[in-house]
Amino acid sequence: MLHTKNNVKDDEDDPFEMVVSGLEVGAIQEDYYPIALVTSRGKVECRYYPVDGAKCGAIYVGGVGGGWDTPAKGLYPQLCQELTGEAIASLRVRFRHPTILAESVLDVLAGISYLESEGIDTVALIGHSFGGAVVIQAAFLSQAVRSIVTLASQSYGAAPASQLAPRCSILLIHGKRDKVLSPSCSQYIYSLSREPKHLILYDGADHGLDEVAEEVHQEVRQWIVEKLKESLEIKASSDGAKNNV
């Protein structure tokens, strides 16, 4: 049984606690398993794309629309399917309360705990819009996170981006014609962040990034694969050095 505890603070600086005490797994649906993480704050619904023996994993979240929201013309399910070929397991997380930042951060932390229970200790987080701030905060709170990707992120709640390096790299993507969240949001987060970091602004792209879906797909896929593999190599080198002491 999965059992873990995660704590975050809300805007009033009060502690939020979530205890993950169990797991419900449904029948396989095409290439993923529907799972529910049973927690003290309700069930967190997920879609899990497993890889036998994987040490790396990626978690994907949407925005305030909730559900299985995905930007860039189905980016998330495409990546989940493709990255299995790179020995990277994927988990899509559905927010219980997609307008409450602290609750949504807890959902992602619960997802990280699940991946860790599967033997995955090197994680990338990908978030769109509101989800960008969520993954930044979750990365700050979890040492397992080695890279994050934000897509058309909001800037509210993103202050912890200044404290992620050098453990965690960040890729920020935004459309210059975003009418929901100005590209200045991602520019601001970039200014807060330290290396390794990268910012891409697309001409003609709106909030959903559908206009540049192919380019976004290539950039995000390459970033996740490269950064997770780099993290594995660093970890292996560090472990080897410790063993030789």
Automatic annotation (TrEMBL):
Keywords: Hydrolase
Gene Ontology terms, MF aspect: hydrolase activity
Source superkingdom: Bacteria
Keyword Hydrolase: yes
Record's protein name: Dienelactone hydrolase family protein
Species, as recorded: Funiculus sociatus GB2-A5
